Amino acid sequence: MLDVRRLHLLRELDRRGTIAAVAEALTFTASAVSQQLSVLEREAGVPLLERSGRRVVLTPAGRTLVTHADAVLERLELAVSELAGAREGIGGPLRIGTFPSGGPAIVPATLAELAQRHPALEPMVQEIDSARVSDGLRAGELDVALVHDYDFVPASPDTTVEQVPLLEEPMYLATGVATGTDPARGLATRGDTLAELLGPWATAPWITARDGTTGHAMAVRACQAAGFQPRIRHQVNDFRTVLALAAIGQGAGFVPEMATAHAPEDVVLTRLPLFRRSKVAFRVGGGTHPAIAAFVAAARTAVGATGRVS
After folding, report:
1. Taking the CB of residue 249, how many other CB atoms lie within 10 A of it?
2. Which of 137, 192, 231, 244 has the fewest CB atoms below 10 angstroms from its CB?
3. Per-residue DSSP letters for 29-86?
């Protein structure tokens, strides 16, 4: 009989690529992961792994088993959800991941809605970049998460994670130069394409999110699509800081519509033909879990109050 916990390790090896990465993510030692995978090979009766230089790669049989592992773990998630639905009331810990700008904009209103509807729930929030959410969900560190993707940086396909739409919002160019804007609103009005809207800032310094984040990738690719490579001066993830730096002439940056509500007076905001899409993510099979369904409903109510629900 194949052990489900060992199937989980094999699936993580397929996703993460190295035994060391699996061990770090799941707080095991590398030797423990290696031993458990060896036991799984004996259970399977066929080679599942082979050495490729310093790396371990899955054999065709190993990749086939990962496909079955996905199905098995999904069924277990469905079983957990169904059992939770049989209990009286919705309560207990709910581990929630959120991208940084989702904290002030979405999370408080969502938790307030949850507290009103399900006071026995114990939400536990941690900030996490959207690129790391899938790992956190599969590792069991998170139960549900707010994630986002951008034009130019679509979400990577992941058969282990399900996402439901929450909201879509336009992106804005933030600068500190008011030429060519409507003074009453501070919004630039000239140009329709990225090349027209971003081109005047091709030689200016830029403010982006930190390297390795989806926000950074979006900024670089948007500028490249406009015909230039951005000269990045500042790397910050907080959109309030981006707006403040842009307002004093420290560079141009991108911010989503949610971040523009409290923009400094001296910042100029130019709407771009780019969008950010926020979603709620959870393990495949977990959508019917009462606590996760309650979180999704509360998030939709919170976002719906802003008029931006997808």
Report:
1. 13
2. 192
3. -HHHHHHHHHHHHHHHTS--EEEETTEEEE-HHHHHHHHHHHHHHHHHHHHHHHHHHH
User: What is the CB neighbour count within 10 angstroms for residue 211?
Assistant: 10
Taking the complete model, does pTM exceed 0.85, yes or no?
no
Q: What angle do CA 252, 153, 71 make, to 5 degrees?
A: 155
The two structure tokens encoding residue 177: 């130069």
The mean pLDDT of 216-241, rounded to a whole number, is 96
Q: What is the number of other CB atoms lying within 10 angstroms of the CB of residue 260?
A: 20
Pairing relation of β-strands 55-58 and 231-235?
A: unpaired
Name the phi and psi angles at 265, rounded to 5. Answer: -60, -35
Find the radius of gyration of the CA atoms of the chain. 23
DSSP state of 187: E
C-alpha 141 chain-centroid distance: 14
pLDDT value, residue 190: 59
Q: Which residue has the tokens 């995978």?
A: 37
For tokens 């700008």, the residue is 101
Which token pair is 21?
A: 């990465």
131: its two tokens? 């690129």
CA nearest neighbour of 57 among 25, 13, 99? 13
- Least trusted range by pLDDT, from 39-48, 67-76, 186-195, 276-285: 186-195
Measured CA to CA in angstroms, residue 202 lies from 199, 212, 234, 235, 292 at distances of 5, 22, 15, 17, 44
pLDDT, tens digit (0-9, with 9 covering 90-100), for 244-269:
999 999 999 999 998 998 899 899 99
Beta carbons of 275 and 143 less than 8 angstroms apart: no
